[in-house]
Amino acid sequence: MSVVEDTRKLVQDFLAPELKEISVRLDSIEILNLERFKESGRRFDAQEALNAERFKDIGRRFEAQEALNVERFKNIDRRFEEMDRRFIEIDRRFDRAEERANERLDLILTKLAVVSDVTELRFRVTAMESRDKAS
């Protein structure tokens, strides 16, 4: 068993330190990777917080713009309502003017009918006088 023990001793003398060194190096790499992951996590959290603040700011700006637009539309609606009132008033005035014009036209037509009747009577009277003189 001397060969087995010699092999075992050889493995312990040469391989064990190498394995120990490899183990230490792996532990070191693992610690380094953990630090890098922690740093990446911190950077990700910081970026996430920055993005959240940006989205809040965009939300506030959007709400402010929306409120401004609502006020503008209300103002436009008021202006349209005022224009509608003006058009209704103008339409009412035109209706009154049309009624007055129709009344005046009726009056003129009535007076023209009277003048026409008077003129016709005049021609008849003139014709009768001419017949009376001739007889």
Would you mind describing this structure in some detail?
- With 135 residues, this protein is mainly alpha-helical.
- The chain has one domain.
- Helix content is 99%, strand content 0%.
- It has 1 helix and no strands.
- The longest helix has 133 residues, at 2-134.
- It is rod-shaped, with a radius of gyration of 56 Å.
- The mean pLDDT is 92.
Q: What's the quaternary structure here?
A: single chain
Low-confidence stretches: none
Helix content: over 70%
Q: What's the count of strands?
A: 0
Could you give a short account of the major beta sheet?
none
Envelope shape: rod-shaped
The helix count comes to 1
Proportion of beta-strand residues: under 5%
Structural class: mainly alpha
> In angstroms, what separates the terminal alpha carbons?
187 Å
